[in-house]
């Protein structure tokens, strides 16, 4: 008569499991509980303080009929898509260049990574000065004789989000470069030798061999970039304050303004719930494809 090994598996690493209980409880109470509380009160007419006065989907109807919220979603899409593309492309290309064992590699790596050490507030203020038409890039170029040159993205409602994008790329691309460089340094040198012996061009080696082997690095990088995109707030506040008008509004700023400045918790909760929903729509299919496929395999 055989004994089931399941009870023994449950008792394995018992001390570690007991030690993880406080962390699990904290996650359940603070994160899961806080999320449920936010979603619950998004269906109420809460103002300065939460109150149990249910209004159904009124907060969401008001949210999606507000031009300011629609502008913030449009800006987030533009900022998010371009950040994903340019961060990955520029970060990977910089990593490829540094992977050639160039001289002063440590110096270049430090220079590229240094902006990431700055806070978004500092980055926003720096680029607010750089893009200022009176004493920034525009003024410098005009002083060289190009008097008709115009470059003031932070003062043009149609392109202000691209000015924010420049600052975001300047700060975050260095980290992406370091992640990619670590992935490239983990590739076995024999793979490069075999590719050279077979006469495979360098660009084909990167596209068809190296990049597929770096899939875990790209997945980690995508998660980091996307988490920064969804919660972008302080960069916009420091650089433009959401202006001109509401042209550079983003969802996180919308949530903050309604929850604290406008003292409308119900509307703020509805907006934050939509932000959570956007993350769930992206993360759940990715997690299913990433881990569900492995279990089936």
From TrEMBL:
GO terms for cellular component: plasma membrane. It is found in: Cell membrane. PROSITE patterns: ABC_TM1. It is a multi-pass membrane protein. Residues 73-288 form the ABC transmembrane type-1 domain. Its main location: membrane. The chain crosses the membrane at residues 21-43, 76-98, 110-130, 159-184, 205-230, 269-289. It comes from the Bacteria. InterPro entries: ABC_transporter_permease, MetI-like, MetI-like_sf. The keyword Cell membrane applies. One of its GO terms (biological process) is transmembrane transport. Keywords: Cell membrane, Membrane, Transmembrane, Transmembrane helix, Transport. Belongs to the binding-protein-dependent transport system permease family. This is Sugar ABC transporter permease. It comes from Fertoeibacter niger.
